[in-house]
Amino acid sequence: MRLDELLDELQVRIDAVRGTRDRVHSLLEAVVSVGRELDLAQVLRRIVEAAALLVDADYGALGVIGPDGRTLSQFLTVGLDEEAISEIGPLPAGHGLLGEVIHHPEPLRLTDLGAHSSSYGFPPHHPPMRTFLGVPIRVRDEVFGNLYLTDKRGGFDFDTEDETVISTLSVAAGVAIDNARLYEGSQRQQLWLKANAEITESLLSGSPRPAVLELIALRAQEITGARIADISMPVPGAEGLFVEFAAGADSKARQGLVVPYAGTLSGTAHRTGQPVTVLHASDDDRYPADAQTQGGLGPAVAVPLGTAGRESRGVLLLARAAGEPAFGENELEPLVAFAGQATIALELAERRRDAEQIALLEERDRIARDLHDLAIQRLFATGMTLQSAARLVEHEGAAERVSRAVEDLDETIKIIRSTIFGLRTKDRESGPGLRARAARAVGEAATTLGHPPRLSMEGLLDTDVPSEVADHAMAALGELLSNAARHAGATRVAVALKAEPGEIVLTVSDNGRGIPAQSRRSGLRNLQDRAQSLGGSFTVGSPDEGGSRFVWRAPLPTGS
Fold first, then answer.
1. Contacts (Cβ under 8 Å, ≥6 apart) of 414
2. Dihedral sign, CA of 152, 154, 157, 161?
3. What ranges in 205-320 are assigned the alpha helix state H?
4. Cα–Cα dist 64/161, whole Å
5. pLDDT tens, residue by residue, 246-274
6. How far is Cα 102 from Cα 69, in angstroms, rounded to an integer?
7. pTM, rounded to two decimals
C-alpha cells in the first residue's frame, strides 16, 4: 500500500511537471509570436490574445496609458464581440479598479473584484466578472499600459503561477512594443521626408498655393491616419482663422469656417505657437467653441505653421476617430518638423512670387517709359510733319485725308497715355477680394453676437463677382449680421456665400425669435432695394425648426 501511495504521488508530480513544461512551451510560443510582429496594432492584439490563452481567462484587455499618465487612450479587448461592446457603450477611461493598476503599477490579483475598494461596478449590459489579474507592461523605463484578465475558466482563482506567467509575458511584450515603435517611427520618418520633398518640389515647380495647401493636408492625413485634416489661415483684422482647406469626413461643412481664437484648438495653437493635443476632441471642456472637432472625433492635434513660440502663419489640425491612439511624443516631433518645413516652403514660394511681381512691375515701368519716350515722341513728330505738309497739298480730298490722319495720331497718343497710366496704377488700386472681406466681417460680428457665426463660401468669389456687386453683397451681409445681433436673440447664426453660374447668393440663417410680419417691409426694405437695383431679389423665410432665413440674390455678368 505504501508503494501505491508513492506511485500516485510520483504520478501527480509527473503531471505537474508536464503541465509546467506545457505552460513554459506555451509561454515561449507566445513570446515568439508577439516578437515576430512589427506592426504596433498587431503586436498589441497578439499580446492580449496570448495573455488570455496562457491563463485560461474568459476575458482579457490591454489598456494603453495616455500622454497624461492618468487615463487610458486605447483599450483592446478579447472575449467580447462587437455587438456586446456597442451595447456596453464608451470604452473605459481608466477609472476605478482599472485605474488602481495605473496609479500603482504592480501586479494585482483578486478573487472577487467587486469587493475591492476601488471597484465602481459595471455599466449596463456588461457581463458579470469575478476573479481579476492586472499586470503592468513596461517599455524601458515607462509604463506603456496594463494587461487586465478576468474570470479564469472552470471557476478557479488566478494563482501565483498565473501571475508569474503574465509578468513574464509583459516583459517580452515591452520589448516587442519597443521594437514595433522604433520600426514604426523609422517608417513614418521616411514618409515625412518624402512628403516634404514632394511639397518643396511642387512649390518650386510653380504649383498654385491652394494646390500646395491641399498637398500638405492630405499627406499629413495619410501619414498620421487622421480622419480629418484642416489648414486654417489668420484673417487680417479679425479675431479668427479661416479654414482655407479641409480634407476627410464632412470637409465641405468645415471648409470656409471662421474659427475663433478663443476656445478652439487651432486658435490656441496659433496664439501660443506650440502644438496642442487632446484625447477626446468632441467633448473637451477646454475648447467649447471648436466646431471643427465635433462629430465622434477622438484624439486631435493642432500644429502651428511657423516658428515656435510666436504667432503662426496658419495651423494644421488633425483628428482621429474615437478610440484611435492618441498623438504621442514620437508622432509630434516629426509632425512639428514637417509643419516647419512646409512653412519654409510656403515662405520661399511667397518670396518667389514677390520677386516675380516686382519683376512684372519693373517690366511695366520699362514699357511705360519706352512708350512715353519713344513711341509718343515719334508719333507726335509724325503728326507735326503731316500738319506742315497739309498746307502744301492743293487737292482738297488729299488735304482732308491728311487732316484725318493727324487726328488719328492724336487719338492714338491719348490711348497710349491711358495705357501707360493703367500700367502704373493697376496693381496699386487692387484691394482685398470678396472672400477675405466676408471672412473679416463674419469674424468681427462674433463680438456683437456673443458667439462666432458659421461661414461657408463656394465658387470663384474673387474673380467672378464684379466690385459693384461685391460691395452690395458686403453691405447686405453687414446689415443682416447687425439685425441678428440686435433683434434675433439667436445662439446660432450661419452665413453661406456662393458664386453660382450667372448669380451670387448670400444666405443668412439663425435660430432666433424670427421676424414679425409687420416689420419685414420697413426693417429690410433697403436690402430688397439693393437686390432689385442689380436685377436680383431678396426673400425672408421662417424654417420649420424656427428662426429666420434671409436669401439675397444678384445676377452676375454673362460668362461669369
1. none
2. negative
3. 209-224, 251-254, 265-272
4. 25
5. 888 888 888 888 888 888 898 898 888 88
6. 8
7. 0.55
